Amino acid sequence: MQETKSTCPYCGVGCGVVIQHDGRHITGVRGDPDHPANFGRLCTKGTNLHLTATPVVLQHQRLHVPLKRAARGEAPAAISWDQANREIADRLLAIRAQHGPEAIGVYISGQLLTEDYTAFNKLARAVIGTPHIDSNSRLCMSSAVVGYKQSLGADAPPCSYEDIELADCLLVSGANPAWAHPILFRRLEAARAAKPGHKLIVIDPRRTETAELADLHLQIRAGTDVALCHGLLNAVIQRGWAAGDFIAAHTEGFEAVQALVRDWSPARAAEVCGVAEADIWQAAEWFATSPRSLSLYCMGLNQSSAGTAKNTALINLHLATGQIGRPGAGPFSLTGQPNAMGGRESGGMATLLPGHRDPAKAEDWAEISTLWGAPDLPGQRGHTAVEMFEAAAHGEIKALWIVCTNPAQSMPDQAMVRAALERCELVVLQESFAHTATARYADYLLPAATWGEKEGTVTNSERRISRVRPAVPAPGEARADWRIARDIAALIDGGLGRAPRLAADSAEALWLEHREATRGRDLDITGLTWAVLEADGPQQWPYAQGATQGTPRLYTDGRFATNNGRARFIARPYLPTAEATDANRPFALTTGRLRDQWHGMSRSGAVPGLFAHEGRPLVRLHPADAGTLADGTLVRVRSARGALVLPLKRDPNLAPATADIAMHWGDEFVGAQQGVNAVTHGAACPDSRQPELKFAAVAITPA
Ligand code: SF4
Q1: What is the best residue among 45, 339, 341, 462 to mutate for testing ligand 1's pocket, by most ligand atoms within 8 Å of CB?
Q2: Which of 350, 457, 538, 643 holds its CA 20 to 30 A away from the CA of 550?
Q3: Could you give the CA distance from residue 577 to residue 600 in angstroms, rounded to a whole number?
């Protein structure tokens, strides 16, 4: 048996794994005891990783060769890589010539490696010339990106996982790490056991397993997070718990926020949020007066039409109490995907450029033009995820190249997304798994290598860069994602009569290009090499030239990444959700993860044992709302966009008037229906463009 160290491909905790194999097949997996994210521990998903690469899965669930559909609706047939690359390049060139490069969109994934991101970013912006490249990370953490930039000046989570152990008070808001980030939750449990007097506050409309552990659970009405943060800040100011010296020395804008929250007494916030006023006073006291307070937050804040306002309102609390820039203190956003962070760093998104540069700044485009040797970059931001599919639905975008993601299942407002895919002249899907919902719409399916077969790097939630290493060859003719991009890019460049702009011949060469884009930036990693990662293990950025170790914590000197070094209080009013419940649609539908499943289940769904925790899609409803309907009764869940029929589950852990459906189930599990995104909507935060997957107004009636 051989062993190869790599990283878990599921969540943003980024646990180190040791792949056991015989050089041809993966036979087992264990946690890497040397990895500082998990110290050898793995959750159920990680422990079962090898079962996603069994010979049966490889044979029946993976794509092996390039496939082409002669016509939509027909079964695809095998073609050679040469033919697929040539035909795709020719068709993209033809669309580009007839409609302009903006008629092409590239939709990628937070599960790609940083090297793949770098390749696709160049392919879209420098080779095709389209501004329209975005990632499914838009659905995951773009509100956290904008929140950090607005408040602290850079998209840089300032904390480390060890802060979970160091904090005296932990505020978990809109997150359920017990299921979504299980290894961090184990660290949280251990920290509480080891520290008498530790306080855990959880803000969530659902009484989750995380909330079960809390000293105080604020079970707010879905979507009222900003009102709660304003009420907490009001209490902090009223009781004199604000850190006046810190505010004066290191921040700006406090007066405007003070004026804004003056109207948000804990009594008013309690009424709007549906919680007890005394609980708001208590939470404010624990958070402000504990020596070290840390917040952990995730999709409950991010997936919202007020996503950025929710993030900045929480960061306001940290700034007002001086709970930042110290061990055990700070606002710590958790990433859902294994490399959402790497995508942010390499700028493979419509609203970002490499090295945390800004597409709104001409000088940032100029720097990337120089780095890439491409004088004709688009020069403006492109369509974000929902916008890209809307543009395709309207006929503005004619071709979509989709990589390592399944928008026909995972995007909100699925009827619109599927109509967009049908209307496109060309859909290219680059995937490892053969049977996703999006595969049915693809004109070309390109087989991609995946976990255990490819190499590169990922960055986890605490800014730690880890190596991903290949243990076995990819099945059939599957290739690394960056290589597929490079080969078609070369044909497009050739068709345009110029030298290849994406010419890297290895993942490491692409990583070095990415590294150069960080020089002098807040995330500078010019002191890091793959040899250092080999010798010293995973490292946290920044790691500038001359450094001998990474950086566990940011802003420890009280200087923030803004122009004047001061963090900014952001005064944003509480706004209601994009949709409101009413007499016709009285339930607030929220979505979330199951403990043992991952995204659209293309990988985790291959492991029968992972269905033991929950084996079928359900809609959960508070018993008071379910009335006399028994568990298992089929009910119709109907929104303004669509409907689906699911078995009911009575669940006293939900707030009244709230319904909950797990995000994972798609067509193959819900029959001819489309999973929860048949009823969700694409209304998004105006700043981050992240859609509001946590709130849709629905009716629920017996089917
Ligand atoms: Fe993988 Fe996340 Fe589980 Fe760690 S916590 S083993 S990264 S799924």
Answers
A1: 45
A2: 350
A3: 26
Q: Which fold has domain 104-137+338-445+457-461+468-537?
A: Rossmann fold (3.40.50)
pLDDT recorded at residue 287: 98
CA 324 to chain centre: 23
Q: Is 202 helix (H, G, I), strand (E, B) or coil?
A: strand
pLDDT in tens, 271-304: 999 999 999 999 999 999 999 999 999 999 999 9
Q: Could you tell me which CATH number the domain at 587-702 has?
A: 2.40.40.20
In contact, 31 and 38? CB cutoff 8 Å: yes
Q: Comparing C-alpha atoms, which of 397, 404, 446, 385 is closest to residue 421?
A: 397
Residue 516's pLDDT band (cuts 50, 70, 90): very high
| Burial group, residue 394, by CB count within 10 angstroms (0-12, 13-18, 19+) | exposed
Q: What are the tens digits of pLDDT across the range 141-187?
A: 999 999 999 999 999 999 999 999 999 999 999 999 999 999 999 99
Global pTM value: 0.97
Query: For the sheet containing 2-7, what is the strand order?
Result: 2-7, 16-21, 26-31
Q: Is the pLDDT of residue 671 over 70?
A: no
Q: At residue 1, does pLDDT exceed 60? A: yes
What is the best residue among 50, 181, 184 to mutate for testing ligand 1's pocket, by most ligand atoms within 8 Å of CB?
Answer: 181
CB count within 10 Å of CB 339 equals 32
Q: How far apart are CA 663 and CA 669, in angstroms?
A: 12
Closest by alpha carbon to 558, among 314, 173, 312, 243?
243
Whether the upstream peptide bond of residue 407 has omega within 30° of 0, thus cis, is: no
- Check residue 505 and give its pLDDT: 95
The predicted model gives 531-536 an average pLDDT of 97
* In the chain, domain spans: 2-60, 104-137+338-445+457-461+468-537, 147-335, 587-702
| Assembly ipTM | 1.00
Integer Cα distance of 558 and 5 in angstroms: 37
- For residue 657, the CA-to-ligand 1 centroid distance in Å is 32
- Ligand 1 binding site (Cβ under 6 Å of any ligand atom): 8, 10-11, 13-15, 38, 42-43, 45-46, 181-183
CATH 3.10.20.880 fits 2-60, yes or no: no
The predicted structure's pLDDT at residue 631: 96
Could you tell me the fold of the domain covering 147-335?
Answer: Dimethylsulfoxide Reductase; domain 2 (3.40.228)
Q: What is the pLDDT of residue 666?
A: 85
DSSP-derived 3-state class of residue 669: coil
